[in-house]
Structure formats: C-alpha cells, structure tokens
Amino acid sequence: MKAMILAAGLGKRMRPLTDNLPKPLLLCAGKPLIVYHIEALVAAGVKDIVINHAYLGEMIEETLRDGSAYGASIQYSAEKEPLNTGAGIANALPLLGGAPFILSNGDVWTDFDYSQLTGLDIDLAHLVMVANPEHNPQGDFSLTEKGFLVADRFSERGIGLTYSGIAVLHPELFSFCPSGPFPLRQPLIDAMATGKVSGRYFKGQWTDVGTPTRLKELERAILGAP
C-alpha cells in the first residue's frame, strides 16, 4: 500500500517562520513535522510514499531525498503553483497507482496508528475524524452510527466532527473532477451523497499545527514541558 503526504501549502498562517522554510520542514521537538508522518507510516509497513510540493519544494527534496534515511522510498509530485488539496492529489495519481492509498496532511501531528488503515476495504474514501478543536467548533462532516459520513455538519443522523487530514482514498474518487485547482472536500461531498465515504472517530492525540502558537504548544507537549 502506498501513501501520500500533502506538503504543497504556502504556510501563510505560520509566517514569519515560513518566510524561508516550507511548513512541513518546521522543527518540532528537534524534528521536521513531515518526518513524524514518514516514521509513523514506515512503522506501519507503508514505505512507498509520494509527497507533493510547491512553495520552496526543492528544500523538501534536499532534506528528505529518496527517503532511504527513514526506511522509506519517496517520490515527489512537484507543482509549479499550489493546486489545492484535491487537484494536488489528482495530479499525483500516476505515482500512486490504481489501488487505495493512505493520505496524510503534512501540517498535522498525531499519534494515530497508520496500521489501522492498511488493507482497509473501502468504497471511495475512509476518513479519520477527530473532536472539533477550538478553531473549528462546528466540525466538517457528520459521522453516522453506521460509520458513514454525510456532508451536513448538523445532521440528526450523526455527530459533527472535524476531518483529521488522514484518510484512505480510492483513485476513482477523482474520476469526475474538474480541471484546475479544487479542494479535496469537493469530490468527498459528491461521494458522500451516494453513501461511499466511511469514517471513524479517533480520540487519541491530534493537533492541527496551523499557527506558531500551536507549534510551540505542541513542542511543549511532546517534550513534557509545563
């Protein structure tokens, strides 16, 4: 099974830290954020990894190289300009093949065990959901009792949760996507309408490292500092 890590964002909310460094390479407790994902994937037996990049992407390639230092085999999907999440994934499909693959956002931190996703039988997508953080109090989608996701965040059929940035996607999810940039949310909502997106509620550690303040808070948590 292959995996893709999204690493093409501009990191605007992290400025000035990202003025001269791509967000996935920001250090947290002495380690680049993206390396936490690579190590977790390799630990789960997922060694073939595709990373997309745009902003200062050459620095990502120079740092991670072919991935052998981490026990991985890394390929890169370079974007001249950020294509947004959905189009970025679609652009990388030739490297990912025709089977379902694991997706992870490069700007989150979690202790989620990726081995729970290997070999998972899905329709078009399976999303890992988390409790709504302060910066996203209304959530993204609703998870029903039967384990399916619906686009209505306030659905009486389920509980509103936040998408963690971790998923298993089938390439067919992108069969009818538009040309040009588009968010991953767009094909997901279309697939939810036909009941082809399942999900799970993860209650472990998870942080959307979206601001310098959150980065500092995460580092203190990892180091066990007060």
TrEMBL record:
Please state every residue range assigned to the domain named Nucleotidyl transferase: 2-137
Q: Which UniProt keywords apply?
A: Nucleotidyltransferase, Transferase
Q: Which InterPro entries match?
A: GlmU-like, MurU, NTP_transferase_dom, Nucleotide-diphossugar_trans
What is the scientific name of the source organism? marine gamma proteobacterium HTCC2143
Gene Ontology terms for molecular function: nucleotidyltransferase activity
Q: Which domain of life is it from?
A: Bacteria
Pfam families attached here? NTP_transferase
Q: What is the lineage of its organism?
A: Bacteria, Pseudomonadati, Pseudomonadota, Gammaproteobacteria, Cellvibrionales
Its recorded name reads Nucleotidyltransferase family protein
